[in-house]
Amino acid sequence: MITSNFFVDFTLIKDPDKIESTVNSLEIDNRRSVREALDYLSGLIRKYNNEEEYNITLGKKAFAIVMWMLRYINENGLTSRFVITQRDVFEKELHRISREANENIIFYCDSAGINAVTEGDNFKIPFDFFIKNNRKLSGFKYRLVYQKLRAGEIIVSKEQFIHLLREDFVVKIMDIYNEISPGDSQNIFRKYIDQLDLIKKEFLEIKAKSTISLGDVDFTMFPPCIKTYITQMRDGENLAHLARFTLVSFLHNAGMTNDDMIALFKTVPDFKEDLTTYQVNHITGIISGTEYSPPKCATLQSNHLCYMGDDPLCPKIKHPMQYYERKKRDSARKRDR
Ligand code: SF4
């Protein structure tokens, strides 16, 4: 049974009174949790700046306090870094506990309000849980059409389920974060405001220095999907595999150099230079001999990677490159008039 020791306590994070009494308590254990949360945020920023390692695991109370501190700081880039780092800790933790028994994953699900059961080595999960969390996952294993459906439930392997739980964790954490009132947060941390303001200032200074360079390529002409991937990267999110492929093949076709692309990917939290160089060189044809094109809009749409919103050009085109070419052509026409 692992739930009592699991590192996230959703009930605690959602309870402003408990957070306030923890933060303002004189008990050594609570004061230690506040210190742990402040040290964690400093480490997160140092890592953002110069890759310096820090302790990424947090106790339950410190985790909840960090969430509230982040709400006060209110910087999307920093919150994203936190959520993504903790998402990866969460995934590792699920793998670790499930090595003892798959039932341990079910204990977590019970505490998180997810109605799942084991079925042999697999898991039976609700249909709506699957479709809510498969959106950012690329690959046929996460497409609905390939699933075994039975009476409104889907049978998935442990690996699939852990990936879906990882996505669900991000959604849950972000939902709770968005419900926290910045005003409540400011009130709770009144004793620590100077320290939190200092952390925010340090983050903003580092962020200002780490602007993303796109070389000679014109960002204003990019379609919404490509702009979104770049913004997500700037905010520290890990892109789904297909989004990375789309971004690299798009930027290559738009004329960006491989060195500029590799520099661009350096902002991603799980950046690995060797792997990125290999992938960029593969997609651009240096290794493979094939220069890949980005996928069509229909493919991006079916993988939940289209962000057209109310863009007026998107409904008229079928391919992200077509969007870029049209924008360039229209802009050249305007210039020549
Ligand atoms: S319609 Fe196409 S170009 Fe526009 S955002 Fe969607 S995938 Fe990108």
Termini, distance in Å?
72 Å
Write the CATH fold name of the largest domain.
Transcription Elongation Factor S-II, Chain A
Tell me the series of helices and strands, N- to C-terminal.
HHHHHHEEHEEHHHHHHHHH
What is the overall number of helices? 16
How big is the Rg? 22 Å
Question: How helical, in percent, are the residues?
Answer: 55-70%
CATH structural architecture of the largest domain? Up-down Bundle
Largest sheet: 4 strands, antiparallel
**Are any ligands bound, and if so which?**
iron/sulfur cluster
Provide structural commentary.
The chain is mostly helical. The chain has 2 domains: 3-207, Transcription Elongation Factor S-II, Chain A; 219-336, no CATH class. It is 61% helix and 4% strand. The chain is built from 16 helices and 4 strands. It has helices spanning 10-13, 16-23, 28-50, 60-73, 76-100, 103-112, 127-133, 158-179, 182-188, 193-209, 224-234, 241-254, 258-265, 273-283, 297-302, 320-336; strands at 117-119, 122-126, 148-150, 153-156. A 4-stranded antiparallel β-sheet has the order 1-2-4-3. A hairpin with a 2-residue loop joins β1 (117-119) and β2 (122-126). α7 (127-133) packs across α8. The longest helix has 25 residues, at 76-100. It is globular and about 70 Å long. It starts with 9 loop residues before the first helix and ends with a helix. The mean pLDDT is 86. Bound molecules: iron/sulfur cluster. Residues 223-225, 297, 300, 306-308, 314, 320, 323 line the site of iron/sulfur cluster.
